[in-house]
Records
---
Amino acid sequence: MQSKLIEVDAKKDFGDKEFRFITEFRHKFPADEINIDYRSKKLIAHLKVVDVTELRKAITSLSQKHHLDKQNNPFEGLVHKIEGIKSYGLKGQKRLFVGYNKERKVKNRKKKEQKRGIHFYAADNNFKKENNSLPECFSDKIICGDSEEVLRKLPDNCIDMVFTSPPYNFGLDYTSTDDDHIWENYFNKLFAILEQCIRVTKFSGRIIINIQPLFSDYIPSHHLISNFFIKKKMIWKAEILWEKNNYNCKYTAWGSWKSPSNPYLKYTWEFLEVFVKGTLKKCGRKDDIDINSDEFKKWVTAKWSIAPERNMKEYDHPAMFPEELVERALKLFSFQNDVILDPFNGVGTTTLVARKFGRHFLGIDISEKYSHIAEQRTFSTLF
Ligand SMILES: C[S@@+](CC[C@H](N)C(=O)[O-])C[C@H]1O[C@@H](n2cnc3c(N)ncnc32)[C@H](O)[C@@H]1O
């Protein structure tokens, strides 16, 4: 197996202590995983597979042992360069720097991507690039009202991320609205609210919709909603499968039992559709990132296994999502101090988690009762 060559300018001739460092390093790490050497004022590493956390620890402790100063320490420079390598495979805790993509079937992927073009359906969008601040009277607020009406009062491009779960039209018992509309009416109203969401989202902002289709009525809500966003020139960034693992369905519905004539399938998951306005890349301050490397590694795999909310009775709401779902989405797709909007805020799961993780927020719900609970929950919880 070949190795990946990394070079760091040592800027000086190595002396005894650096060579002793190299000797000890070689005792710690097998040469067929990582081998380091010194040649013509260069520190050289041949990399194949390495546990980067262990590498960082070893470099720090050997540097201390051999009294290498932190400033011009080429070994520090080397580990920094290795940590910065963006493409690698994973083998347990170790990063695989060679041979990890030999199974890849598509060669010259970048070139082909350039030829085909990406997200062509959103290319001719007309989105304004100037962003605005959310007026103070809407910042960190829970508002009771119809979202379409409330959102009309907001300026364009003032929200960093919308995170929401609309009513699914399944027939649930909400306090102020029916949940069993004729489908055309349901989608017309939903799209009027989502249209406002697009308008108030900043250029480079995100809209994430948690949705469960009504499989039993053959209504693919997640596809219809995605189609709406795509027609509005939003970029489809991602789809997350929220695995709820709720296999113990209370009812038995087989459709045509033991016959291919019309079997009924069962589902234990919901979807999160992620859309972005204008560009895939969202700018933000490095200091405002709050996701750690373990969370990042785990959550970029787009199947999230999270148990459904268990406290719905306590808050008297029939369709809450769990706090962990919001936490993952906020940390993965937004920065601290961003403004988060939930236009179907219910009893305030989004606004609570936004406040917990240092985001600004605006939560809107048509029900006075839910808005009251949301306010209590969001503002009285101590973090
Ligand atoms: C699926 S629930 C959201 C629950 C929320 N994610 C939580 O964890 O509490 C949908 C919410 O939309 C609200 N709603 C329905 N129509 C609305 C409208 N036109 N404007 C604002 N809220 C509305 C309902 O009152 C309901 O609380």
Note: The first helix runs from residue 16 to 28.
---
Amino acid sequence: MSILPSLQADLKKATVKELSDCIKAINKKINPHHSLTVSGRKDEIINRLVSFIATLLTQNREETLVTLVRIVNENAPKKLSWNYENGDIIIDFVKPKRDSSTNIENVEFVANPFLKPMKRLTAIKICPVAGQSRQSRAFEFTLTEEDRKLLATNNTVDDRPPYQIRFYCARYAGRTDKLEVEFPNICELKVNDSVIPGQNIRCLKGRPGTVNPPDLSVMSKKTAQNNLELIYINSSFPFIATVYIVERTPVHHLIDILKKDRILSKGDVLKQLQEVQEDADIIMESETLSTKCPLAFTRIVTPIRSKSCNHLQCFDASTFLTMNEQTPTWSCPVCYRPIKSWEDLIVDEFFAQMLLNTPRHIDSVRVEPSGVVTIIDENPDLARRDEEDEEDEEEADTPLVKTEPEVTILLDDDDDDDVQVSYGSPYHATDTINIPIAVAPTPFEKPGPSCMKKRPPPTADFDVQPTRKRTKKKSDVIDLTLDSDEEASS
Ligand SMILES: [Zn+2]
């Protein structure tokens, strides 16, 4: 109950009228049967209020406390700004006049690989808790000659400007570092004559950090003063907000960084798998990997995954980064674990080599516990067309790694009777990856995305390629896993 003296001191800032309004609202909304006395000296009213709060805290009446905090904030909006969190009332000391105090001069948002704040354009402002009545915070800035030059920089990489003006906002709980972009649940942002509606800046499933700071570049005036207003209601947390000029990093620049500095060598990949296997004490079984990205259902070009994930399956760097540039969810599309930092991403050399040694028409391969990679070829007829495609695309692709004769190529008609076929140099049926590995089967045995299954269902991929549809039918006939009666009757 050490909070009580602080509450008592804080309440003294309110006027007698505000305090008695609080008690009236409490009597109406919380305490209709045991009304607190409204009249009396200021000290008496405060003591009454504090002892009532003490009772609620002792009884752990969370919902009532949330309502009470809201009543206090609403009735003394300029003097008091409380917050109820984890069983405690927090006094925020958030007063409009103190907004520019030095303790919030250095805010730092969680690093976003696509957007890097370069220069702050407005004051950093705290947006206090809001009840039923509308709250708003105004921001203004005028671009300097230097800002205009920066914003006019041409982009040589893609068609979007490399510098932008963006509005940053985050929940404020006293700390100013590692802030995750988030806006009050019900809000709108006015930018000069334009309005950014709340639904455009809402986090995904209420998860902070899953929304981008909105781009104000085209709405901003180049020479005149820019006026912004964040309007919101019903916010039980204060927010902190400001405007920056940011530098944008295009997706393929990030891919270049990954390919240059973040390659996890094949040896390390296999070593890690062995460690997982030893720790897990799981029976060794072969695993199926898809050559297609679980996000785009197209063949992976640059195979990446998080270094903290325990699976071999990768996803495509370009697809993953493009999606996260739009909506920064940062979760693994294979095991759905959060990827805490983009720096956790690695290019998997083992997977890259597997891709390089696997014909284009192949959707999946099997990795044996011994490290041997077996190609599962369900459409051998496509092999010829595949070779032609590869010749066409050879010049476009920059291989990540050199082809090494370390993958066994097996033509796989069914599970029990593998026919080993050498495609000629650099493939040799007897070649294996000579590192004994044990792959933990659990991550792959779970029903994962459809692309990870050995026989993917006819998705859009088949629908858009009529020739492929035809050959798939053909492969169904030779698939011994199908029921023969079913085949005959169809
Ligand atoms: Zn994962």
Note: The pocket of zinc ion is lined by residues 306, 309, 311, 332, 334-335, 337 (CB under 6 Å).
